[in-house]
Amino acid sequence: MAWIYLLFAGLLEVIWAYTMKLSNGFTKLGPSAITLVAMIASFGLLSVAMRSLPLGTAYTIWTGIGAVGAFVLGVTVLGEALTPMRVLAAVLIVTGLVLMKLSSS
Protein backbone atom coordinates (compact mmCIF):
# COMPACT_ATOMS: atom_id res chain seq x y z
CA MET A 1 0.00 0.00 0.00
CA ALA A 2 2.94 2.33 0.68
CA TRP A 3 3.87 2.29 -3.01
CA ILE A 4 0.35 3.39 -3.96
CA TYR A 5 0.51 6.26 -1.46
CA LEU A 6 3.89 7.22 -2.88
CA LEU A 7 2.58 7.16 -6.46
CA PHE A 8 -0.32 9.45 -5.56
CA ALA A 9 2.00 11.72 -3.58
CA GLY A 10 4.18 12.05 -6.69
CA LEU A 11 1.20 12.77 -8.93
CA LEU A 12 0.04 15.45 -6.50
CA GLU A 13 3.52 16.94 -6.69
CA VAL A 14 3.05 17.32 -10.45
CA ILE A 15 -0.31 19.00 -9.85
CA TRP A 16 1.03 21.48 -7.33
CA ALA A 17 4.02 22.32 -9.53
CA TYR A 18 1.71 22.98 -12.47
CA THR A 19 -0.81 25.03 -10.50
CA MET A 20 2.03 26.97 -8.88
CA LYS A 21 3.09 27.98 -12.40
CA LEU A 22 -0.52 28.97 -13.14
CA SER A 23 -0.75 30.97 -9.92
CA ASN A 24 1.66 33.57 -11.34
CA GLY A 25 3.66 33.89 -8.13
CA PHE A 26 0.61 33.23 -5.92
CA THR A 27 -1.22 36.23 -7.36
CA LYS A 28 -4.19 34.19 -8.65
CA LEU A 29 -6.43 32.80 -5.92
CA GLY A 30 -7.77 29.62 -7.57
CA PRO A 31 -4.45 28.13 -8.70
CA SER A 32 -2.82 29.28 -5.44
CA ALA A 33 -5.42 27.45 -3.36
CA ILE A 34 -5.09 24.28 -5.45
CA THR A 35 -1.30 24.49 -5.08
CA LEU A 36 -1.46 24.65 -1.30
CA VAL A 37 -4.04 21.86 -0.97
CA ALA A 38 -2.11 19.61 -3.36
CA MET A 39 1.16 20.35 -1.50
CA ILE A 40 -0.33 19.41 1.86
CA ALA A 41 -1.90 16.25 0.45
CA SER A 42 1.32 15.30 -1.34
CA PHE A 43 3.44 15.75 1.80
CA GLY A 44 0.84 13.87 3.83
CA LEU A 45 0.84 10.87 1.49
CA LEU A 46 4.63 10.92 1.34
CA SER A 47 4.81 10.81 5.13
CA VAL A 48 2.41 7.85 5.24
CA ALA A 49 4.48 6.02 2.61
CA MET A 50 7.64 6.68 4.65
CA ARG A 51 6.23 4.70 7.54
CA SER A 52 7.27 1.53 5.73
CA LEU A 53 9.58 2.67 2.91
CA PRO A 54 13.18 3.80 3.41
CA LEU A 55 13.69 7.57 3.36
CA GLY A 56 16.08 7.51 0.39
CA THR A 57 13.80 5.34 -1.71
CA ALA A 58 10.58 7.20 -0.92
CA TYR A 59 12.01 10.68 -1.35
CA THR A 60 13.89 9.83 -4.54
CA ILE A 61 10.85 8.27 -6.17
CA TRP A 62 8.57 11.09 -5.01
CA THR A 63 10.82 13.78 -6.47
CA GLY A 64 11.44 11.71 -9.61
CA ILE A 65 7.74 11.33 -10.31
CA GLY A 66 7.38 15.07 -9.80
CA ALA A 67 10.34 15.94 -12.01
CA VAL A 68 9.41 13.70 -14.92
CA GLY A 69 5.71 14.51 -14.58
CA ALA A 70 6.40 18.25 -14.59
CA PHE A 71 8.64 17.81 -17.62
CA VAL A 72 5.95 15.92 -19.54
CA LEU A 73 3.27 18.42 -18.52
CA GLY A 74 5.51 21.33 -19.47
CA VAL A 75 6.11 19.90 -22.93
CA THR A 76 2.56 18.74 -23.64
CA VAL A 77 0.52 21.51 -22.02
CA LEU A 78 2.77 24.55 -21.72
CA GLY A 79 4.61 24.16 -25.02
CA GLU A 80 8.08 23.91 -23.47
CA ALA A 81 10.97 22.71 -25.63
CA LEU A 82 11.34 19.00 -26.32
CA THR A 83 15.03 18.59 -27.07
CA PRO A 84 17.07 15.41 -27.23
CA MET A 85 19.08 16.45 -24.16
CA ARG A 86 15.93 17.06 -22.08
CA VAL A 87 14.48 13.70 -23.18
CA LEU A 88 17.74 11.99 -22.24
CA ALA A 89 17.64 13.65 -18.83
CA ALA A 90 14.08 12.40 -18.26
CA VAL A 91 15.06 8.89 -19.38
CA LEU A 92 17.96 8.93 -16.92
CA ILE A 93 15.63 10.00 -14.11
CA VAL A 94 13.18 7.20 -14.93
CA THR A 95 16.07 4.72 -15.08
CA GLY A 96 17.17 5.85 -11.65
CA LEU A 97 13.63 5.45 -10.31
CA VAL A 98 13.39 1.91 -11.65
CA LEU A 99 16.75 1.02 -10.13
CA MET A 100 15.72 2.54 -6.81
CA LYS A 101 12.52 0.50 -6.81
CA LEU A 102 14.33 -2.69 -7.74
CA SER A 103 16.92 -2.15 -5.02
CA SER A 104 14.38 -1.68 -2.22
CA SER A 105 13.17 -4.65 -0.24
Automatic annotation (TrEMBL):
<feature type="transmembrane region" description="Helical">
    <location>
        <begin position="57"/>
        <end position="79"/>
    </location>
</feature>
<keyword id="KW-1133">Transmembrane helix</keyword>
<feature type="transmembrane region" description="Helical">
    <location>
        <begin position="85"/>
        <end position="102"/>
    </location>
</feature>
<dbReference type="GO" id="GO:1990961">
    <property type="term" value="P:xenobiotic detoxification by transmembrane export across the plasma membrane"/>
</dbReference>
<keyword id="KW-0813">Transport</keyword>
<comment type="similarity">
    <text>Belongs to the drug/metabolite transporter (DMT) superfamily. Small multidrug resistance (SMR) (TC 2.A.7.1) family. Gdx/SugE subfamily.</text>
</comment>
<dbReference type="InterPro" id="IPR037185">
    <property type="entry name" value="EmrE-like"/>
</dbReference>
<keyword id="KW-1003">Cell membrane</keyword>
<dbReference type="InterPro" id="IPR045324">
    <property type="entry name" value="Small_multidrug_res"/>
</dbReference>
<dbReference type="GO" id="GO:0022857">
    <property type="term" value="F:transmembrane transporter activity"/>
</dbReference>
<dbReference type="InterPro" id="IPR000390">
    <property type="entry name" value="Small_drug/metabolite_transptr"/>
</dbReference>
<dbReference type="Pfam" id="PF00893">
    <property type="entry name" value="Multi_Drug_Res"/>
</dbReference>
<keyword id="KW-0812">Transmembrane</keyword>
<feature type="transmembrane region" description="Helical">
    <location>
        <begin position="33"/>
        <end position="50"/>
    </location>
</feature>
<protein>
    <recommendedName>
        <fullName>Guanidinium exporter</fullName>
    </recommendedName>
</protein>
<dbReference type="GO" id="GO:0005886">
    <property type="term" value="C:plasma membrane"/>
</dbReference>
<keyword id="KW-0472">Membrane</keyword>
